[in-house]
Structure formats: C-alpha cells, structure tokens
Design brief:
Structural class: alpha/beta
Radius of gyration: 21 Å
CATH class of the largest domain: Alpha Beta
Order of helices and strands: HEHEHEHEEHEHEHHEHHHHHEEE
Largest sheet: 8 strands, mixed
Strand order of the largest sheet: 3-2-1-4-7-6-8-5
Number of strands: 11
Distance between the termini: 44 Å
Helix content: 40-55%
Strand content: 15-25%
CATH superfamily of the largest domain: Spore Coat Polysaccharide Biosynthesis Protein SpsA, Chain A
C-alpha cells in the first residue's frame, strides 16, 4: 500500500463515520419534526412473541407488551417445549394480568430448520386479529409502542412496518460489549442504509403487517428454512409492490451475554448471515471499521504520523458515538470501551469469511449460499 493509498483509505473511513453520524441526526430529527400520523380507526392487533428459555428480564419484557395503551389487542406467547423455563413465566403473566387477552401456545411441531419460524407457524392459528405484530422475546417497549408501530398500516400501500432497536446491557462486561456493537455499529449502519434507501430495513425487533399480506407472501411456511427470516419477509412484501416502513420508534433490546464465547458465536452468526444474504455489500462493509482502517493506514504512513492518526480516529469515534447517544437516547455505559469493541468487531468480520457454520439456540447449522439454513450433517433442504 502506497502513502497515497493509505491516505485514501483513511479518508474513506472518516467519511463513513461522518456519514453515519449525519444519518443518526437525520433520523432523530425526523422523530421530532414528523411525529407518526394518528389514524382515526385503530384495528385490533395480535402480538406474536416466540419464546425460548428464561432469559434475564423476560418477565419484565413480557409485561411491557401486556401493558400497552391500545384499545384492543391480544398477546400470543409461543413455546415449543413444556420443559422450557419460559413457560412458568408466561403463565405467571396471565395470572398477573387477568384483564388482558393473553394466550400461551405450547406446540413442538417443526417443519423446516428455523425453529423460531416453526414456533410462529404454531402460534398463528391462535391469533384472532387481522393486524399481526411479531417481536422477539428480548425486547422491551413503552405503552405507546403498538399505537406507533401500527399507525402506518392505515395506508393500504404500506405492507410491513419494522423498528430499529437499541442495546441496553443488563449483565457484565460481555453484555456491555454486545450493546456497544448494537448501538454504535449496527444501528448507525442501518440508519445510513435507510437514508440511502439501500438497507431494506426489516428487523426482528418488530414486524407489523396485515394478515392478508402475510397470506399473499406465502405465510410463515416460505420462511421455514431461512436464517434471516425478517429480511426475507421484507423482500417478499416489497415484491408485492407494497412499501416497507421503518418506524420512528426504537425498541429496547435487553442484552445479556454471559461469556465471551456466547458473544462471539452470536455476532459471528449475524455476520455470516449478512454475508450469505448480501455478499457484495458485506464486503463493502469493511469501510464501517473506522478504527481498524485508520490503524492500518497509520502503519503505512509510518512514524511520526501514525500515533496522531490513530488518536484522531479514536477522538472522532468517541465524539460521533457521544452525539448519537444524545440524539437517540442510547445507553452510555462502557463508552470508553469502544476501541476494544471495534477490535472485536473487526475480528468477527474477518473470521466470518472463513466458514458458513453458525451456532443458534444450542444447535449447529450451516448457512447455504442464499441464506438458507440446515442442520450440520443434514443434506441441503
């Protein structure tokens, strides 16, 4: 690498950092300047929550969905195994909120390799309403959540509404690192993609759609062997000629990572999924690793410039993160660990190119070229 090339790499890395910071400001301004339209009619909603395990904070997460300020809604909790420790928590919620319409579905039937989708398929017959909201179990919301995320569905041109999420660590060091990745890695990149209209913006934190749209895309059955089921659902809705909307609502993801091993496996699964779904953009994602690229450029530039370049990159990274935390109300816990977080993120990125195996919910899978999922050792599905 020549000095000129090193300088170009440095400029690209810093330009990306400025770009994602601007995208975060734009999104934050949109939330203030253009509040969601309040439709005259609020149709009943069925919220589907697939559960697996008694993760920390699960009871509080479920209560936040049960305590919505919405005229009529149903909460459907799906569990695949009667021995799952999430089941007593789900049943306790029914006892705590007897005035709420809460249903627990326990059904082990499985078609396909994506167990979450199998859970959703088993839950759907118990959903009584025509507006369906799907949300992961580790999400926590405010009482205005349903009113906000379902409002865009009043427009018949809207096929699906999704939400971004911010990481709130509820554990120790590894949980803080995981939340830093969500808040200052994933979230800014997703906002940049939304600003440039290249992201597609569908996330498991929230998927809200009408039942007829779900049926038109083939239901959950078409997602049985997809690892990135949220991404596939959004693509299928857009192929119908309908719009996918990124809500201004940002969900809280309660982040619990007990060990570095669990953190590594979780993020490696995310990275390899992204690589399988969009290989060319994933390669281009290297520009998102500002600190790593700046360090490589600094090494090429040589002393005495190198320390100054790295220090400048660090200061800009911290400044951008602090600004985004202020605009989007993101947790600031462990912000000083950003350099450690960025080194780990770059390592995950590099290793993601060295295989297709992932660990998910105590199972080993292999990701096919198109993002399809199969159990390790099985024939392709």
């Amino acid at each position: 690498m020549s000095v000129l090339s090193a300088g170009l790499v440095l400029l690209v890395a810093l330009a990306y950092l400025i770009g994602v910071t601007a995208a975060a400001w734009r999104f934050a301004r949109r939330r203030i300047v253009a509040p969601p339209h309040e439709p005259a009619c609020r149709p009943p909603v069925s919220v589907l929550k697939p559960l697996y395990g008694a993760e920390p904070g699960l009871a509080e997460n479920l209560r936040s969905f049960a305590d919505q300020d919405y005229p009529e809604f149903q909460l459907v909790l799906g569990i695949r195994d009667r021995a799952d420790p999430a089941l007593p928590i789900a049943r306790a919620l029914i006892r705590e909120r007897p005035d709420r319409d809460i249903v627990v579905v326990v059904d082990p039937r499985t078609e396909g390799s994506n167990l979450k989708v199998a859970n959703l398929e088993n839950m759907l017959p118990s959903a009584r309403h025509d507006v369906i909201v799907i949300s992961d179990s580790d999400m926590r919301v405010r009482p205005d959540y349903l009113r906000t995320v379902t409002a865009p569905l009043a427009d018949p041109r809207t096929g699906l509404v999704s939400c971004l999420y911010k990481g709130v660590p509820i554990g120790g060091f590894c949980s803080v690192l995981a939340a830093l990745h969500i808040n200052f890695g994933f979230l800014p990149g997703a906002l940049a993609g939304e600003a440039l209209d290249i992201g597609g913006g569908c996330f498991g934190a929230t998927l809200a759609l009408r039942r007829d749209v779900l049926e038109r895309i083939g239901g959950f059955g078409r997602l049985r062997n997809e690892l990135a089921d949220d991404h596939r659902m959004g693509s299928a809705v857009r192929r119908l000629g309908l719009v996918t909307v990124l809500s201004t609502y940002v969900v809280e993801n309660r982040v619990w990572e007990p060990t570095l091993e669990s953190l590594w496996q979780h993020e490696l699964r995310w990275a390899r999924t992204s690589r399988a779904m969009a290989p060319v953009p994933f390669v281009g994602w290297v520009i998102g690793h500002t600190l790593a690229l700046s360090a490589l450029a600094a090494i090429e530039l040589g002393l005495p410039a190198a320390p100054g370049v790295v220090l400048l990159a660090l200061l800009l990274r911290w400044a951008a993160a602090a600004a985004m935390a202020h605009w989007l109300d993101l947790p600031r816990r462990g912000l000083w660990l950003l350099p450690v977080r960025d080194v780990l993120s770059f390592a995950v990125y590099i290793v993601s190119f060295c295989g297709r195996s992932v660990s998910w919910r105590n199972h080993q899978f292999r990701i096919g070229p198109g993002g399809q999922l199969r159990v390790e050792g099985d024939k392709p599905v």
